[in-house]
């Protein structure tokens, strides 16, 4: 069957809404703090709460997906993001925090379900669609970072934040239209006798929590996410302290991260197809990540180079882990459970990244020790991920059986 282009567009639009609402707050922090009359710590909750939701609520998201089905869960995710976006824009700090919690829960469902959608509905293009998905996550962050402040100047910060709900509505519309067309094409192919042959029954084996591969991927994702959140939270401050850059100039490092992440996301599937070894690709990604802490210690004046290489790594890191989740899952149910476990554990650790890096900086009154902490997280990613991501294969196909027919029909 041909690639369902409209459904693919829906996946990309959904991904634009799975990070953008979080970073939309950053450009209007001063406005929020002034109008809501809250402290900087309260404002910090608006960015830290969603990451905690990603980790703590992932098992609940997995159960929701099992109950509602895969495609309906995407709609639930978008509904949560839309409701939270509107609630956050109402008056009062209570509404802002409550809306942020709802956004975090909605995004958590999306985090878990979209990799399952990719593994099920794009079986012949899993790696490429995963790359498009992870690239769109970064594009969503870049879009909201760039446009929220100008919108706030024109409309005020409340209307500016609420306006991103229009992107959620657009994603829901395209997703629904793409799903209907995909279902119709699948039914027509089945009626014409062109449907693919039924896959083999799912492999039997231990619970996902008892699989060493699952724990390895969880630790690898934890190292990736800890590194990303810890580095992006403190890198502008580090550059301002060590290189004498202005805060605005140092903030350019975040832009390099986001832009280069898109290239990293698309490079990983090409490397997986070329080398036929996700483990080797993961080790390459960790080597790029390591250039950031090592480079800033050894040659800090070359920080633009280290930021570019780390940007490639952060886009490639999440992509290779998601590819590994699909490849190492025995069936659709295990895909969902493995995705929930990996992201749940990883994001709980990630929420500690800014706190740990900041605490080490305060305790040592310098940046060498915090950079060594980041390097340690990269080492964990390499050590845990390399044995778990999947070794060399004779082709680019997944290493395990696809989902059983009854699971496919259920979503």
H-E order: HHHHHHHHHHHHHHHHHHH
Number of helices: 19
Approximately how much helix is present in the residues?
Answer: over 70%
Percent range for β-strand residues = under 5%
| CATH superfamily placement of the largest domain | MFS general substrate transporter like domains
Q: What's the CATH topology name of the largest domain?
A: Growth Hormone, Chain: A
What's the assembly state of these chains? single chain
Total strand segments: 0
Radius of gyration: 21 Å
Which runs of at least 5 residues are low in confidence (pLDDT < 50)?
197-204, 394-398, 400-411
Describe this protein with a few key phrases.
mainly alpha, disordered C terminus, Growth Hormone, Chain: A, globular, 411 residues, single chain, 19 helices
Structure commentary:
The C terminus is likely disordered. Helix content is 79%, strand content 0%. The protein has 2 domains: 187 residues, MFS general substrate transporter like domains (Growth Hormone, Chain: A, Up-down Bundle); 178 residues, Growth Hormone, Chain: A, CATH 1.20.1250. It is mainly alpha-helical and 411 residues long.
List the topology elements:
Elements: H1 5-16, H2 20-23, H3 29-36, H4 40-56, H5 58-68, H6 70-88, H7 93-121, H8 126-155, H9 157-163, H10 165-191, H11 212-243, H12 247-250, H13 252-275, H14 278-298, H15 303-327, H16 332-350, H17 353-364, H18 368-385, H19 405-410
How would you sum up this structure in a few lines?
The protein is an all-alpha fold and 411 residues long. The chain has helices spanning 5-16, 20-23, 29-36, 40-56, 58-68, 70-88, 93-121, 126-155, 157-163, 165-191, 212-243, 247-250, 252-275, 278-298, 303-327, 332-350, 353-364, 368-385, 405-410. It has two domains: 5-191, MFS general substrate transporter like domains (Growth Hormone, Chain: A, Up-down Bundle); 208-385, MFS general substrate transporter like domains (Growth Hormone, Chain: A).
């Amino acid at each position: 069957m041909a690639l369902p282009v409209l459904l693919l567009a829906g996946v990309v639009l959904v991904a634009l809404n799975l990070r953008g609402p979080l970073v939309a707050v950053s450009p209007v922090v001063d406005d929020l703090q002034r109008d809501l009359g809250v402290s900087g710590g309260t404002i910090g909750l608006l960015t830290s709460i969603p990451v905690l939701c990603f980790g703590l609520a992932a098992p609940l998201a997995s159960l929701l997906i099992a109950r509602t089905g895969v495609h309906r869960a995407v709609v639930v995710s978008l509904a949560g993001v839309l409701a939270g976006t509107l609630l956050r824009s109402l008056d009062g700090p209570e509404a802002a925090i409550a809306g942020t919690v709802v956004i975090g829960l909605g995004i958590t469902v999306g985090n878990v379900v979209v990799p399952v959608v990719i593994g099920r509905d794009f079986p012949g293009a899993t790696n490429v669609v995963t790359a498009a998905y992870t690239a769109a996550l970064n594009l969503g962050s870049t879009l909201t970072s760039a446009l929220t402040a100008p919108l706030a100047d024109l409309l005020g910060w409340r209307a500016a934040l609420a306006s991103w709900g229009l992107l959620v509505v657009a994603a829901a519309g395209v997703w629904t239209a793409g799903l209907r067309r995909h279902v119709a094409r699948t039914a027509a192919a089945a009626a014409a006798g062109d449907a693919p042959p039924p896959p083999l029954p799912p492999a039997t084996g231990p619970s996902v929590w008892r699989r060493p591969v699952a724990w390895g991927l969880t630790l690898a994702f934890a190292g990736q996410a800890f590194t990303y959140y810890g580095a992006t939270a403190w890198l502008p401050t580090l550059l301002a302290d060590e290189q004498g850059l202005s805060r605005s100039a140092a903030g350019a490092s975040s832009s390099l991260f986001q832009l280069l992440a898109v290239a990293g996301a698309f490079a990983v599937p090409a490397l997986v197809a070329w080398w036929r070894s996700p483990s080797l690709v993961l080790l390459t990604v960790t080597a790029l990540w390591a250039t950031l802490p090592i480079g800033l210690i050894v040659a800090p004046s070359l920080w633009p180079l280290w930021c570019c290489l780390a940007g490639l790594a952060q886009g490639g890191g999440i992509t290779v882990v998601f590819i590994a989740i699909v490849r190492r899952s025995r069936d659709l149910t295990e895909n969902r459970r493995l995705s929930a476990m990996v992201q749940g554990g990883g994001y709980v650790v990630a929420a500690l990244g800014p706190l740990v890096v900041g605490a080490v900086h305060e305790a040592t009154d310098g940046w060498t020790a915090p950079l060594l902490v980041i390097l340690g997280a990269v080492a964990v990613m390499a050590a845990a991920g390399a044995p778990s991501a999947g070794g060399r294969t004779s082709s680019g196909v997944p290493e395990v059986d696809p989902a059983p027919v009854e699971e496919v029909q259920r979503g």
